[in-house]
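hey all, quick one before standup. I had two proteins in the batch that finished overnight and I want to keep them in one place so we stop losing track of which output belongs to which input. First protein below, input sequence then structure tokens straight from the run.
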Amino acid sequence: VQLQASGGGLVQPGGSLRLSCTASGTIFNINAMGWYRQAPGKQRELVTSITSGGSTTYADSVQGRFAISRDNAKNAVYLQMNSLKPEDTAVYYCNANIMSQSAKYYNTGYRDYWGRGTQVTVSS
């Protein structure tokens, strides 16, 4: 199972970016999906998450500016980022709680998978 993220880049303050992340491989089921970020010199933090049923949570710092969504048929999660600020600059990682086909067969349950990360830089 792999997660592939895309969509990062350089944007001016106040601008928008959309991140995408797709899970591939022998997947039985995906539970929650989400986005984390890590700025230089800081710990990785949860930005937002979404359950398989569509319930969402957001960090206070992005509430009202960012929107997470997912397409269960495509095993994909998206992050629409609006009104970007310089403090949003970070490497963004997608995360998914997945049961693979082999985990289903061996009854080992769900585990977290991570994408490689995509750089988001907000600067004028």
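OK second protein, same deal, sequence then tokens:
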Amino acid sequence: VQLQASGGGLVQDGGSLRLSCAASGLTFSTYTTGWFRQAPGKEREWVTAIRRGGDGTYYTDSVKGRFTISRDNAKNTVYLQMNSLNAEDTAVYYCAAGKSILSSIKNINAYTYWGQGTLVTVSS
């Protein structure tokens, strides 16, 4: 199983980025997928998650209205559109996948598979 995250980079304050996470080696459509992030010197934190069918999305309060998670099960890919970025969004972003985890989507230990992370740097 492999989750390959991409799309990170350097962006100015107020800018946008779109992250992608391509999955292989698993039946992607049966997994809830999420994004976490880890800022320098901080613990990894949950950002957002999407149900396996794409019919439910969940966000941490700090990104509501700015970030949008989506998925294309035909392409085995989950996306994270990030708008109105600010310095507090600077972090390594990780995608993750897990089964039967709707009751614990914010729990890092609920996810079985992880991508390698992609760095997002927001400059002020």
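Flagging for whoever picks this up: The mean pLDDT is 97. The chain is about 0% helix and 50% strand.
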